Give the backbone structure.
Amino acid sequence: MTLFHRWNEALDTLKAQGRYRSFALPQGLDLTSNDYLGYGNGRLGLPLTPCELSRTGMASRLLRGHHDVWGQVEEALTAWHGSDSTLIMTSGFTANEGLISTICEPGDWVATDELNHACILDGLRLSRCRRFSFRHNNLNHLEEGLKAESAKAGEGRAMFIITESLFSMEGDRAPLQAIADLAERYGAHLIVDEAHSTGCYGMLGSGCVDEAGLRSRVLATMHTGGKALGVPGAYLAGSQLLKHYLINRCRHLIFTTALPPECGRWWLEMLPKVHSDAAGRDALHHAAHLFRSELRSHGIEARGEAYIVPVVIGDDARAVQAARKLQQQGYDIRAIRPPSVPSGTSRLRISIHADHDGEMLRELAKNVGEAVNG
């Protein structure tokens, strides 16, 4: 039984039981939502936004929390990525944990990059699947695991590979093309976390998977709004079957209060701006390149290659001390320590933005060099 047969069988069972779920718009007098004090309906004359969207009572999306604005957002996101569908979730953590814990089952085998985000690890723990942690971006180690598992894979059990496209603490990118090739060679399904790349890669900013032309070769991608896009929430892009399966089986969706519909308007306002902001993406990558070059001129070799710039110091106290010096100079730079990063790799994590100008970046590089080496 393939993974997709597994999903279809589960959905057919739910339909036969009368338990199949789908989104429905709010209708009639609200006796469903959790708006217990009536604030969402304007009781006590509390101010409402001009938009009627905010009158929707608070509930999960499967109760009264759905609104047609989310259909519009998902349609726009689907067109942006050229995927079959998208599904809005409340946060990136919830999206990753919910996706993985829903589709990976006990007996399934999952290869996960050792530096994947905590929400991916938590999703794997909840799924109770078998895990293979491969060395960061190490294709040889990944293939060793795939080869060994494919030789003994059981009937009805699925294999997955999960990676971030741009690693949030390393500032480096996964070799997605090569990973997709390995996934296909060994019959594994590929899941990519695009949290830190959404908006910043590709002609329209839709991320590294689309930039590499791999959309049809991945099972799902996860994207957040709360980073480059600056809006609340996150979403999963994949097939229609995956979306229906998650709507019916993902506890993180079924039992979570939906985002306020007003947030959907923010998404609809932001997406066209991101699509057309090629100049912003160019400025971002230019600024990152300049800053990294300036750091090297001051004796600092940062990890990675992107606009996330990790300056590894090692010792926790030294990292805190360096961050404090920079904060006193007016820079909001934080020391990142375990468990966010492996023991012995405490660092400064510097996030470069498109609106950081060259003069500021040169001065910052000089000050980082002094703080680290002084």
Summary: The CA atoms of residues 125 and 358 lie 44 Å apart. The mean pLDDT is 93. The chain has 13 helices and ten strands.
